[in-house]
């Protein structure tokens, strides 16, 4: 029934990142070919969802006469095909079942995976680095408590760092930032250090079910014996495995992603953001395993949006329609030999928003987007980092008295005197987003209505970044009083021009502006 339900609409293929970048994978053809083989061989059983099932019910020999291994291994397991199927066909499960057969029965898997498998077997991590070094990232953090796997767990939260957070140079910084933020908020947490092992995500996604279960059962036995109840992790792949797959093997825990934890700490006031600001235009890249696999979309955006001065922009494909970074489905360990690399295509899309920063919430996404922007010729003015790193940077700079302003590319920053002799306005121009060139922006700025007072720092209002501030200046809006006095008609006109319906009311620009105006008048 699953394959018979296909309407051949092609929506799954249209959103597949592998197909879009020139790979041979076509999700619609996977469904149709599977149905054809089942009909021809009278194999009426439907392939089970990936899990603990010991059998693969599709007639494998016949199936791989129609579907190539190359197609199967091109999948990033982003789940965009499932998300967009109008009749809810589970396409991803079929692909993962095929991988399971190829790996366990035929030993037919990309050669690069061999190294990852050996690493997980011998050193309990796909980097194949000595597991004794797993806690080295925290050596300079005297507040991080490392608990031996055989001891009772007395902290409230286990911080599950993950393999990337422990061994990858970029993501070690994420681990440090997350630990510092948890410590600032007074969270009682500890890590396992060398006692932590890979959750087995890459093993399961690449079809090595035996290796996955070996790793999972060792972790679960240790965690249950220690009495661990609550886990927080910055890795969506660890998050998904611990939360959704370990219960299959009697591993039942309350699992939070670090974006959820940080969002809660900010809401409760335990993480103090007083004075913290980041005057940047930020685009957030949705992680597939955090978003489509676990429906967590708002928490990462909320963390970044909690900083004063930030202007959040969205890529054309975001949320449930977001594009994969290219590293899921164990593709992190495989090279792309055909077509354009997925991370290059996705990072180009993010760069086109005119953002000065890219925020991620996944170690794989962080690596892929950072590498992708470099492939697209980005310089150091575009910063890619995890949400925890952006947040900690803003907090630490405010404490040091430097605010959250990061040096802006000189070609985007210029001073325009206000008509009437007002103070000059430092205006950030968004590439192709607000104005085409610095020259046209200067013309627009020169048309600003004359004012007799110096402009306020509108970026203090949460939701207004440097780009929106520059645009408001072109509308003659330069003070808190002007924003506080906006009529509903004026608000509607502004929101229509910028195409962000209800944003001004939702972010309470008028209320914030009134408070800042009152504060200014008191001084």
Summarize the structure.
With about 525 residues, the protein is of the alpha/beta class. The chain is about 45% helix and about 5% strand.
Describe the 3D structure.
- The chain has 523 residues and is an alpha/beta fold.
- The protein has 4 domains: 11-108, Fumarate Reductase Iron-sulfur Protein, Chain B, domain 2 (Orthogonal Bundle); 112-263, Rossmann fold (3-Layer(aba) Sandwich), CATH 3.40.50; 275-399, Rossmann fold (3-Layer(aba) Sandwich), CATH 3.40.50; 410-522, no CATH class.
- Helix content is 44%, strand content 7%.
- The chain contains 24 helices and 10 strands.
- It has helices at residues 11-14, 17-20, 27-41, 60-66, 69-73, 80-84, 91-106, 111-122, 162-167, 169-184, 201-205, 209-226, 236-245, 258-268, 298-305, 342-351, 363-375, 387-399, 438-446, 466-474, 480-484, 488-498, 503-506, 509-522; strands at residues 157-160, 189-190, 230-233, 254-257, 281-284, 311-313, 357-360, 383-386, 413-416, 425-428.
- It has a 4-stranded parallel beta sheet with strand order 2-1-3-4, with helices on both faces. A 4-stranded parallel beta sheet has the order 6-5-7-8, with helices on both faces. The chain has a two-stranded antiparallel ribbon with strand order 9-10.
- Helix 14 crosses helix 15.
- Residues 48-52, 56-60 and 404-452 have low confidence and may be disordered.
